[in-house]
């Protein structure tokens, strides 16, 4: 592991020629694709966060939540501090397929809470010493690939003790990197960190055209015939509609629970544990493939990246399911068919065993059918000896319940 963990050292480690440095917020001359690395002058034990700046972000975004609850400024500062890596100077790695100079300028101009012009690295705006930051950059025609390589190189240089102290299973990324190009996200627990985007209303389609006689068009008829206009400031028309809509509050998306059997919960937890254990091996394969040469033409590197993307995507999906999972066990096992029940049935003279589970657990190859499927819905609530006829596109199927367990 190299001792020098500075920004230019990281760029050289992945095979790029560093350029810079430039003070944060100052224009740079690089209107071309490439990557950039932002670093501190020296490592710091804690992030120099400005409580008032974090408070302004919180006040500006009323829908912001921390672990599904409205936090205080101190709560947010404490959570941001948990992702600080004391031994490292690098705090942000990024890339641009167009202009590195333009991307850096956009990041510096973006107000926390806004998605545009560029929300990447917006945590930097909470640092009291932001003026001390320095920017290094390098040209490349494969910016995303090298951004991933830089993030991996950064993680490889973090001491194991510091990795273990980080939330999220020891995945170490630069402090202000919240999402990598391969889809890895920093598990901050912060949701709705940005203001909702306001979409321009679509033009109203003309449904009919009314022909008026000469002299009756708007502006040509006698003013005395017109209705009285509302006084200024009464809140009419489009402004009144917008105000009324804002007063109602923005609708919040409510995540519906996922019902699981006890076996299904154990199965998903086991899969999640297995995939999490595969992470170090995938990261090692990426690092090995990166040593083989140019990342843009490196097939082994891209294959390992795709594997990592699939792995992280499945982990996120499982974590999201388990977060809203509700375990449903049969109230009286064997009495009637409920979620999680195993049912032995005769289907048109042929005996088979199936388990009725939620749609999240269903797998026909393993004999688990969804309670929302035609067969599952028809069997729910049935008892031993009941007969069920199900209409399918291929005709009628006759089921007889022999045993419930």
3D structure, described in words:
The protein is of the alpha+beta class and 405 residues long. The protein contains 10 helices and 13 strands. Strand 9 and strand 10 form a beta hairpin. It is elongated, with a radius of gyration of 30 Å. The two termini are 57 Å apart. Residues 233-246 have low confidence and may be disordered.
Secondary-structure map:
Layout: H1 7-13, E1 19-23, E2 34-39, H2 51-60, E3 65-66, H3 73-81, E4 90-96, H4 100-109, E5 134-139, H5 143-156, H6 160-165, E6 190-191, H7 237-248, E7 258-260, H8 262-290, H9 299-323, E8 325-327, E9 342-347, E10 350-357, E11 368-370, H10 374-379, E12 387-392, E13 395-404
Parallel strand pairs: 7-8, 10-11
Antiparallel strand pairs: 1-5, 2-4, 2-5, 3-6, 9-10, 9-13, 12-13
Helix pairs in contact: 2-3, 8-9
Q: How far from one another are the termini? A: 57 Å
Class by alpha and beta content: alpha+beta
Largest sheet: 5 strands, mixed
Helix share bin = 25-40%
Q: Provide a count of the helices.
A: 10
How many strands appear in the DSSP assignment? 13
The helix-strand sequence is HEEHEHEHEHHEHEHHEEEEHEE
